[in-house]
Amino acid sequence: MAAEIRLQNVRKEFGKVVAVKDMDLTVRETEFLVLLGPSGCGKTTTLRCIAGLERVNGGRIFIGERDVTESSPAQRGIAMVFQSYAVFPHMTVAQNIGFGLRMKHVPKNEIQTAVEEVAKLLQIEELLTRYPAQLSGGQRQRVAVARAIVMRPDVLLMDEPLSNLDALLRLQMRAELKRLHQEIGTTTVYVTHDQIEALSLGDRIAVMHGGEIVQLDSPNQVYDRPATKFVGGFIGTPPMNFLTATVSDEGDGDVILVIGEFKIAVPEDWKKPLGRLVGQVVDLGIRAENIEVHLEPEDGSLPAKVLVSEHLGSQQLLTVQVGKDILKVAANPDLPIKPGQTISLTILKNKIRIFDEKTGKSLLFND
Amino acid sequence: MTNTRINRLLGTDTLLPYWLLVPSLVYLLIFFLLPLVNSIGLAFRGDDGAFTVRYFLQMVHDVQFASALKYTFFLVAIIVPLQLVTALFIALLVNTGFKGSRFFLYICTIPLGISDLAAGLIWLSIFAQHGYLNSALYGLGIIDKPIYFISYQNISFVFWAIVIAEHWRATAIVLVNLVAGLQMISKDYLEAAEVLGARPLQKLRYVILPLLKPAIQSALIIRTILALQMFAVAVAIGGNLVPVLAGQSYFWYSLYRSYHMAAAYAVLLMVLSIIITWFYMWFFRPKAEMVGK
Amino acid sequence: MSFRRLQRQTLIYMAAIVVASWVLLPIVLIALASFTPQQEIYQWPKSIIPSHFSLETMKFFLNSYGVLPSLLNSVLVALMTLGITLIVAAPAGYAVARFTFRGRNVYRMGILMTRMFPTALLAIPLAVTFIKWGLYDTLIGVAFLHVAMAMPFAVLIITGIFVSVPKDLEEAAMTLGCSRVGAFTRVALPLALPGLAAAAMFTFVISWNEVFAATILTVQHRTLPAQIMSTLQASPLYFRFAGGFFMVLPTLIFMFLIRRYLFQMWGGATAER
Description:
The complex is a heterotrimer. By secondary structure, chain A is α+β, with helices and mostly antiparallel strands. Chain A has helices spanning about 45-50, 95-105, 110-120, 135-150, 165-185, 195-200, 220-225, 230-235, 270-275, and strands at about 5-15, 15-25, 30-35, 60-65, 65, 80, 155-160, 185-190, 205-210, 210-215, 240-250, 255-260, 260-265, 280-285, 290-295, 300-310, 315-320, 325-330, 340-345, 355, 360-365. Chains in contact: A-B, B-C. At the B-C interface, α1, α2, α4, α5 and α6 of B face α1, α4, α5, α6 and α7 of C.
């Protein structure tokens, strides 16, 4: 009931636009893989190629041992949850869930048992005789999921299933989907543009940009060690800060980063590899929560002018100006900070990420 | 200054729309409601002004009434379902979105702009003794003398000629309704059905047709009511060989000069139209739960 | 798989060609008939394509008594219908498109339902009424009835047109100093013009084609369909053929011009994949 998915050199074009660029991807059995990216990056197209709703222009697709590149969606052993749910309005919930089994000519009593089982799993047993028009958005979403799961597919595909729900419901359904996956364990490919969803649900995240996978890693890795500036800027709320810095040698093998007049220290084991890049201009990436805020200047700290202060309850989100750069800094909500004030920032050196200024690729963390 | 005066006259946003509707409402009052009432008056009241049913009795006993009723009924009963099936076929064809489907759709809707009289004349040019059907049959070597298709000896042929002509002319009306209805069926439903294993015929039966019901209903209502009023096509092709109710109304007015009789036929047509509409609305009524009540 | 797709595509195109020919052939035939010399029409055996294309049938038709005036009358009636319909329907369409008010749906439904009543029901009493009002056998009288027939469609189309012009644009104009009328004339109207043109052409076609009422309401001042209808039994075959052709010609042109709006009217443009 869970199969491995392999995309080999898959290419999909729409006229002159290349939506998926020669992609190689392996989704392991029972894995929950999230395709994450901004709109237009090709994630939905990739999903639809796996589903067989789009014919690929190049490459091959394997589900389990089978080459399904030429197969129709019904023959691939997949089930799909659409963004709009696509719950048939003219059928009851029970008829909706049982539809796929009916198409397979499964005997009626078996269909009924299966439908009731799945309905219980998704806590919609009481809604079986209702019509979609009588259900809330969240309930309809569960019907869509139930309809897919009841087919016992080898692969479950989900196209932004939570994006039409309000914030609170989204939170609840996220946990639901995670629980479901833990119970049933079907290989799942999940498309979203919401990076929080991705971080929460995925075993691995494939960050996509311009039709290509830019990074394929666990949520922790994607968050903590982004492979490119794009990933760093896309993941995390607020996105990663970037400062322009120059690699400089202070003599004695002491390599530091220089921003304007200020010197930023780096961890000991970086000094040697960084030594190769002395003189180069790089982008220094640091997340808002990895910058310490001091009211008074300290050794090795940067002065920053506070432009905006947002009180978000659990933290104070400051927009500050350092030299020419604008940063977002997360500070303790109890610190008395006002716009116009000058504060001091210490960048946690272990959390510094360095990116090539031109290509945006991460330097130093290529493993 | 004039602006504020106009604004005051037209009132606030709450009153403005009603003012804007006034011209159309007044117009319809004079040129629709009034004639409607007058028609019923003409049909039910003699020249002396007293209420009477004698025109209806005369109508029912008229020598042509039975045939007119019979032919109108059969024409409608045959043409409408035929058109529904044809239009559905064409609509599904268009919906596949093949290259040139837009142009193809335009071609199929050309008959919308053709008057029923013109349509009748067009098919007359085919079916007449000196028409193209005869020429074609001769060219194929099937006959060497022209067949008198349209004659009182061949009334059933004339009947079918009218069916064909009306079908050709008016399928477009059903077609536009169905095409619009098909557009409104979200592609997602069809893809979901496909992923769940439905093949084309199953998709048609379980997804497309049920979701097309509203469009089919409105198409049937419009088409049936218009079919009841058919007259120019029948007259153009067959003169009075195949009498129809609307034609009788026309003839009573123009030939026999009786407004009352003409009105009686018109009222009969109206009653039939209303009955049919009620029937369709009842037949296609959606279950209350399906629309969220 | 690819072969099956090819099969499917071929079947689709073949079906489309068959249907398209079925629609176009009769029109081609009536055109041919109009270009056939009078003698040949009665010939036997008669070939489908005339020996030479001649204008004499059409000339005969146009020169026949009452035809040219009736052509002119048709044009006049259609223009009058067009004008009056736009004046009456445009504000109604705008109101339904822009405002939500009590009775909106009743109005929309009601106005469409007026088309459900047989033309005879309206034309016959109007004949009587017009005699009283002195409008019998006048072009404007026919136009009045045509307006009543065309109005529901016109309102439907015009509503759709104004719905597609975003309300925001007019509101922006009003915040910039325009009055409501000004916003309408400077912003909404220009954007709606193409659609209004389509509604106008649609109305023209409806009036041009209308047979029953025109025949009943006129005696001397007949429109083209009325003229042909009233002389139908007595006229020679080629007369009828040419008449049919002339009725069809302008609508063919108009239908081509307004094809985009036909589907806006019933909702949504078709998409080619």
